[in-house]
Design a protein that fits this description.
The complex is a heterodimer of chains A (534) and B (351). Chain A has 534 residues and is an alpha/beta fold. In chain A, 33% of the residues lie in helices and 25% in strands. Chain A folds into three domains: 195 residues, Rossmann fold (3-Layer(aba) Sandwich), CATH 3.40.50; 180 residues, 3-Layer(aba) Sandwich (Rossmann fold), CATH 3.40.50.300; 70 residues, no CATH class. Chain A has 19 helices and 25 strands. The N terminus and C terminus of chain A are likely disordered. Classes of the chains: A alpha/beta (534), B mainly alpha (351). Chains A and B meet through helix 12, helix 13 and strand 20 of A and helix 8, helix 9 and helix 10 of B.
């Protein structure tokens, strides 16, 4: 509850006490521990970093704050010294003075800046009429105060990523009115270039300084946290590793805490941030100057039978590269497969398939298969034309093909007439792989091939990929799952700002080394995760 | 808003303006579901039989006669053909609201060319078919190239065509079409006492059944409608298939127009519009049967006759002609509500 005293009075009273205090916060899902006895103090007027890898428990913590998850019994929390009852009722966080800015920002692109800023007032129905002139003037005044050049009347889809992020942040703060306490920034900067991140944090600092509030910054990016926070908490596997004063923390210290091992330089890793793309003898597939999405000039090659991994922080471009190469998204660059060079600009999924290039998308539900149709119908779609006869489709041939694939890819249940949606995630993924790999591809592009897949299916899929590669097919696998990359790849390229940053091979293909390389990928002079030492 | 809404303009990213989809298709995968599925599959057919029996009992002298059977089966060819053509765009996840106007324009083209300008019958028919092809192509290109919602494009083109038909006909009926066309549609009743138009409808139903279920094109249209991103990533030429679906419905609508011109012996600038809603009602009602959850030719065939049987029976019981509108309009809503229920049911079964 918000005390009746004015926010200003509170601020002066309790400058030393933590603004947000959390004790003994745990969360288990079934038997899995997502958070274990987490303590957290966020001091007033500070930007507090929350750092950790995927799966370290950062987002679970945030979702408990927003009331989405109920913490395990025993957790306690205070805001400005007042106990908060847990679980927080959904939607109640705003009344506590907490506001969230998520990575997707939650803006309506078709509406104007001022409409987006006032969206919650409009939903709440603050009055019969909205004085848009006044709202515009207010917005303009706010922008001017922070030195921002944004026209309140512009529609949001005409603004750049940075302006959008700023609007989302200003909106989050303004929605809190006088009760502002905590602004939670859940990776809102991943798609922004460095200079713009600086601008954004300048605004956050001013908001925090002048509003008597604090900010909790959730991030994968160590550099951002080091540059812009006052204190930082590192989570690993659901446990707090350390609470640190950022000013006295080094990047190596952070890497060790995040990854769980110390890493010291060695010679195997190749720093690609300055080097031109390396070309390998025996390469059968080669990408030159790929530009698409967040990818900004990526060149690399793949040898016959080699599995090359692409990874990086969100927004580094690794998520966009494969769809670009396949022609599913606008892209430029050149692709050479077994001596045949094509312009990626002209590529389409259709032309890529004709050339034997297959793309297995990450999203099985909307891109991999159609849940309402059968496994057989899904599997045979790319080859359906081969089953045409004068008497319609060769139904027996189709079902035999589907049965063969179900058999060799171990799809369970072994029933090609089952609806695709009735299969488990792992079996759906096996079916999707079967759908694409049935036709002797020349180059395989895999996007997060084992996302949401159970452990059994995961190892089957790994075996499958390795045996496919052993047949001489080059494979490119884009993933943020470091265990998976370590398990299947012969070489991993870490991207930063859309360009290759580091290349890991041999003994460096471990979860820890890849994670360390990714986390540090935005530092000015890369702390390359070299030979790992436990 | 999700695809499961009945709003014509949905905000789903995969397929904007997707027609309110019928429920999920459900081929038997578990024996436990078979009984329910079989009931579901033949429910419409059973409902038709129940309606027939009910009216036969109440109206033994008027309804339960060979003459009435011939009337019910023989008089619905235009609606049947129109509804069958609509299956192409609906399967591909698009609306075509212009089919009734295409029918009017096609029948008026035949009438004006043949009866007023003295063009021989065959070239007149060819011109009518060309009109249907052209309208379908235009609709498809506008939808695909300019990325406009098919609901809007075909609403617009339907209205434009209505204007053109008024202009062509001077807003009045045109009669005097070559009697050969009349003979070929409703005049000659040598086979089972049925007009030939019934057999045309049957033939087109078989052709469309085969195209939709037993050709790569039919399978691809299904993927375009159900999972546009999957279709694109699977290398299908999605845009060409979507255009093709509109061309198909335009062509089939123009065939319906020719049959309509034959059955009237002329053309009328406005009455064709009354086929639009019944055609949609038949498609959606048909999608609850035979292959529940999927727009299908056999279901549509049954739905057309089920609806008309109801209308005829009610009228024989003394209902006024407005009962037709009540019946068709109500059937459309009930059909969509039913298919949503099927979709939810099967979604639940799969969890």
């Amino acid at each position: 509850m918000i005390p009746a005293t004015s926010a200003l009075a509170e601020r002066t009273q309790q400058t030393d006490a933590p603004l947000l205090k959390i004790e003994n916060l745990s969360k288990t899902f079934g038997g899995l521990t997502a958070l274990s006895h987490v303590d957290l103090d966020v001091h007033p007027g500070q930007i507090h970093g929350l750092l950790g890898e995927n799966g370290s428990g950062k987002s679970t913590l945030i979702k408990i704050l927003s009331g989405f998850y109920t913490p395990d019994a025993g957790a306690r929390a205070w805001l400005r010294g007042t106990p908060i009852s847990l679980p927080i009722q959904p939607g109640y966080f705003r009344r506590l003075g907490i506001s969230f800015v998520h990575q997707d920002l939650g803006l309506v692109p078709e509406l104007s800046v001022v409409e987006n800023l006032r969206i919650s007032n409009i939903v709440a129905g603050s009055g019969p009429l909205i004085n848009w002139k006044k709202e515009q003037a207010l917005a303009a005044e706010t922008f001017a105060r922070f030195g921002l050049d944004i026209d309140p009347r512009e529609t949001v889809d005409r603004l750049g990523d940075t302006d959008r992020a700023l609007i989302a942040i200003l909106r989050a703060v303004s929605e809190l009115g006088d009760h502002r306490a905590l602004l939670v920034l859940d990776e809102p900067t991943v798609f922004l270039p460095k200079e713009d991140t600086d601008l954004l944090f300048r605004v956050v600092k001013e908001l925090v300084a002048d509003g008597g509030m604090s900010a909790l910054l959730v991030s994968h990016d160590m550099t951002e946290v080091l540059e812009h926070t006052d204190r930082v908490t590192v989570l690993r596997a659901g446990e707090v590793q350390a609470h640190l004063e950022t000013a006295t923390t080094t990047d190596e210290q952070l890497v060790r805490l995040i990854v769980g091992r110390s890493l010291r330089p060695a010679k195997q890793a190749v720093d690609l941030s300055t080097a031109a793309a390396t070309h390998h003898a025996g390469a059968v597939a080669r990408v030159d100057n790929l530009v698409t999405g967040h990818v900004d000039g990526l060149s690399f090659d793949v040898a016959a039978g080699e599995i090359v991994g692409l990874t990086g922080l969100a927004g580094s471009g690794f998520e966009d590269a494969l769809a670009g190469i396949y022609g599913a998204h606008t892209a430029t660059g050149q692709l050479t497969v077994r001596g045949t060079r094509t312009d990626i600009k002209d590529a389409s999924p259709r032309s890529s398939l004709k050339a034997g290039i297959v793309y297995v998308p990450a999203d099985r539900k909307t891109q991999g298969g159609v849940g309402e149709l059968t496994v057989e119908q899904n599997i045979t779609l790319p080859v359906i034309h081969r089953f045409r006869t004068w008497f319609g489709l060769n139904a027996r041939g189709l079902s035999r093909r589907a049965e063969e694939i179900a058999e060799s890819y171990d799809i369970r249940p072994r029933d090609p007439q089952a609806l695709f949606s009735t299969l488990s995630g792992g079996n759906q993924q096996k079916a999707v792989l079967g759908k694409w790999l049935q036709d002797d591809p020349q180059l395989i592009l895999l996007q997060e091939p084992t996302q949401g897949v159970d452990i059994g299916a995961r190892s089957i899929i790994f075996d499958l990929l390795r045996s496919t590669a052993a047949g001489g097919v080059p494979i490119i696998c884009a993933s943020s799952d470091y265990d998976q990359l370590a398990a299947v790849c012969d070489r991993v390229i870490v991207l930063a700002h859309g360009r290759p940053h580091a290349e890991l091979t041999g003994a460096l293909l471990t979860h820890e080394a890849i994670a360390a390389s990714v986390i540090t990928s935005l530092t000015e002079s890369p702390v390359l995760p070299k030979e790992s030492v436990s | 808003m999700t695809v499961t809404t009945t709003a014509p303009v949905s905000t789903t990213d995969a397929a904007p303006g997707t027609p309110p989809g019928p429920g999920s298709s459900a081929r038997p995968a578990r024996p436990a579901r078979n009984l329910w599925l079989h009931t579901e599959r033949y429910a419409l057919l059973i409902a038709w039989l129940v309606v027939i029996i009910a009216f036969s009992v109440t109206l033994p002298t008027t309804f339960f006669t060979v003459g009435n059977l011939q009337n019910v089966l023989g008089s619905q060819a235009v609606l049947l053909i129109l509804a069958l053509g609509l299956l192409f765009p609906l399967t591909a996840g698009e609306f075509d609201l212009s089919v009734a106007s295409t029918l009017s324009m096609s029948s008026m083209t035949v009438a004006v060319l043949n009866a007023q300008l003295g063009v021989p019958l065959l070239p007149s028919l060819a011109a009518a078919l060309a009109v249907g092809l052209a309208v379908g192509l235009l609709n498809g290109v506008l939808v695909v190239v300019f990325k406009i919602d098919s609901f809007i494009v075909t609403l617009g083109s339907a209205t434009v065509m209505l204007g053109l038909v008024q202009w062509m006909s001077n807003s009045s009926s045109v009669t005097g079409i070559d009697s050969a066309l009349v003979q070929a549609t409703v005049g000659y009743r040598g086979i089972l006492g049925m007009p030939l138009q019934f057999f045309f409808g049957l033939l087109i139903a078989v052709i469309i059944l085969v195209i939709l279920t037993s050709t790569p094109i039919g399978r691809r249209l299904l993927f375009v409608g159900r999972g546009r991103q999957v279709a694109e990533l699977s290398g299908l030429n999605v845009n060409r298939l979507r255009i093709g679906a509109f061309v198909g419905s335009g062509l089939v609508a123009s065939i319906a127009g020719i049959v309509y011109a034959g059955s009237l012996g002329g053309a009328d600038p406005s009455s064709g519009q009354s086929f639009l809603l019944p055609a949609f009602a038949a498609c959606y009602l048909g999608a609850t049967a035979i292959v529940p959850g999927r727009f299908n030719a056999v279901g549509t065939f049954i739905a057309v006759f089920f609806l008309f049987t109801g209308v005829v029976g009610l009228q024989m019981l003394g209902a006024q002609s407005y009962v037709q509108q009540l019946f068709y309009g109500g059937a459309l809503i009930v059909a969509v509500a039913l298919s949503q229920a099927i979709r939810r049911q099967s979604a639940k079964a799969h969890k």
